[in-house]
Inverse folding.
């Protein structure tokens, strides 16, 4: 009887250990595993190694679990038939099944899920060693099952999940409200294009490149912008961009005969479809603050600044020199009828500052 009892405890305990370990290893999020691994702890690094190739540790656990469940049940059955006889064998089998369900499946899996991090860190080094030991058998099993499990590996997370986690963190007080709002705005960068951010061409302030500093002196003095578009015969012929402070410096130095074009620098042209996150990288890489936006035909559609991109993240930036503009009024003064693309420009340009 004692042999039967010890054998039953061994089988149920081994099966429970396998079930709980499997559940714990699969319950710890991949992001949390990587975070733990950054601490440098040996058990955390072992856990990361397991999660990066989870199929082999799970296969090892399955092998052990089946050894306990199948071979253990056979051994218990033979021992029970000798100790209890055929009359009580059926009753014992039913009781054993009940004990396996409760103590080898439900309870250990519940415990493994509830304390997944602690259990995973405790068993990770042992699992690494067992996986290496059983590698030949696991490799054979992988070859057998490979045709049935082929497919693209799913990402460990996605944009929607990150936004949801940020919202939950804000609700629980882990993340401040302004931090949550910033996280939400960051994801907008990939959804907003230069067309959405630009100041349309009807609202652009520009100077002709052929003008001298003396001729453009009044426009330079009263301009509110640090960077001004330099055009050719028409606005579609963008010569470059000139810094207002350089124009003022040249005037102070007594060089009124210099042309605007002689002080200009090359303009950076971008398509309307360029997304804000890529545009921000371009501004950083080129150390620029203004870009000229062109449509699919290469025609100037507007201009966009670094400030416009930053406003996606932190909201409207207004200083003491900013003034609201009315595109309809500007168009009326210039004799332009806003139609088609202009209608889109009107919607996008309201509240913008003229460039």
């Amino acid at each position: 009887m004692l042999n039967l009892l010890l054998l039953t405890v061994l089988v149920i305990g081994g099966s429970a250990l396998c079930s709980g370990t499997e559940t714990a290893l699969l319950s710890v999020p991949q992001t949390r595993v990587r975070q733990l691994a950054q601490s440098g702890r040996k058990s955390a690094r072992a856990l990361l190694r397991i999660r990066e190739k989870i199929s082999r540790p799970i296969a090892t656990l399955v092998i052990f679990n089946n050894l306990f469940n199948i071979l253990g049940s056979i051994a218990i059955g033979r021992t029970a038939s000798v100790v209890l006889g055929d009359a009580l064998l059926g009753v014992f089998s039913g009781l054993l099944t009940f004990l396996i369900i409760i103590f080898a499946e439900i309870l250990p899996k519940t415990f493994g899920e509830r304390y997944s991090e602690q259990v995973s860190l405790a068993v990770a080094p042992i699992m690494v060693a067992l996986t290496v030991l059983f590698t030949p058998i696991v490799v054979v099993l992988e070859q057998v099952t490979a045709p049935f499990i082929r497919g693209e590996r799913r990402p460990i997370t996605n944009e929607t999940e990150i936004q949801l986690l940020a919202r939950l963190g804000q609700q629980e007080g882990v993340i401040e409200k302004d931090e949550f709002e910033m996280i939400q705005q960051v994801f907008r960068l990939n959804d907003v294009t230069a067309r959405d951010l630009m100041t349309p061409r009807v609202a652009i302030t520009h100077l002709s490149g052929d003008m001298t500093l003396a001729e453009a002196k009044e426009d330079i003095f009263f301009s509110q912008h640090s960077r001004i578009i330099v055009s050719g015969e028409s606005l579609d012929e963008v010569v470059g961009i000139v810094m207002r402070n350089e124009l003022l410096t040249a005037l102070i130095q007594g060089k009124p005969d210099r042309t605007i074009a002689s002080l200009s620098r090359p303009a950076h042209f971008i398509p309307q479809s360029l997304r804000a996150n890529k545009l921000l990288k371009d501004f950083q890489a080129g150390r620029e603050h203004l870009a000229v936006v062109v449509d699919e035909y290469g025609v100037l559609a507007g201009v966009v600044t670094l400030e416009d991109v930053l406003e996606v993240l932190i909201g409207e930036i207004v200083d003491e020199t900013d003034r609201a503009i009315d595109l309809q009024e500007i168009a009326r003064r210039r004799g332009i009828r806003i139609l088609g693309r202009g209608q889109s420009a009107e919607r996008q340009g309201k509240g913008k500052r003229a460039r």
